[in-house]
C-alpha cells in the first residue's frame, strides 16, 4: 500500500465543517381527469346505437381540450357527461345486440319449422 493510501485508510473519510443541506422541490400534482376517449372510441366504432358513442366521443374530446387549456372544472364536467353517455351506449348496445341475436334465432327457427311443414304437406 502506498503511504498516502495508508493515511487515508487510517483517517477515514474527510470530515467537513459545514452541515449537509438538502433541497426539496415541491411540484404541484396535476389533477388527473380521465377523459374516457378510448372507451368513447370503442363505443363509436362497435356500439353506436342511437349515435350515443359518437356523442360520448365528442364530449371526451371536449374534456381533453379543457384539460389542455387548464380548465379542470370544465374538463371534469365534460368527462362526467362522456362517462354517462358511454355507460348508456354500452348497456343499450349490449341489450340491443342480444335482442337482435335472439330475434334472428327465433326467425330462423320459425322459417325452418315452416319449411318442414311444407315438405310434410307435399309428401316428402
TrEMBL record:
Q: Kindly list the GO CC terms recorded for this protein.
A: plasma membrane
Q: Where does the chain cross the membrane?
A: 37-59, 87-111
Which GO biological process annotations does it have? Answer: defense response to virus; host-mediated suppression of symbiont invasion; negative regulation of viral genome replication; response to interferon-alpha; response to interferon-beta; response to type II interferon; type I interferon-mediated signaling pathway
Main localization category = membrane
Q: Where in the cell is it found?
A: Membrane
| Keywords, alphabetical | Membrane, Transmembrane, Transmembrane helix
What the record says about family reads: Belongs to the CD225/Dispanin family.
Q: What PANTHER family does the database record attribute to this sequence? A: INTERFERON INDUCIBLE TRANSMEMBRANE PROTEIN, INTERFERON-INDUCED TRANSMEMBRANE PROTEIN 3
Q: What is this protein called?
A: Interferon-induced transmembrane protein 1-like
Amino acid at each position: 500500500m502506498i503511504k498516502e493510501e495508508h493515511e487515508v485508510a487510517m483517517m477515514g473519510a474527510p470530515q467537513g465543517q459545514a452541515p449537509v443541506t438538502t433541497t426539496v422541490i415541491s411540484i404541484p400534482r396535476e389533477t388527473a381527469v380521465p377523459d374516457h376517449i378510448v372507451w368513447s372510441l370503442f363505443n363509436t366504432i362497435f356500439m353506436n346505437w342511437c349515435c350515443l358513442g359518437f356523442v360520448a366521443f365528442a364530449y371526451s374530446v371536449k374534456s381533453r381540450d379543457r384539460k389542455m387549456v387548464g380548465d379542470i372544472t370544465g374538463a371534469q364536467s365534460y368527462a362526467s357527461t362522456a362517462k354517462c353517455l358511454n355507460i348508456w351506449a354500452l348497456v343499450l348496445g349490449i341489450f340491443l345486440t342480444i335482442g337482435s341475436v335472439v330475434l334472428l334465432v327465433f326467425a330462423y327457427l320459425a322459417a325452418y319449422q315452416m319449411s318442414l311443414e311444407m315438405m310434410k304437406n307435399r309428401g316428402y
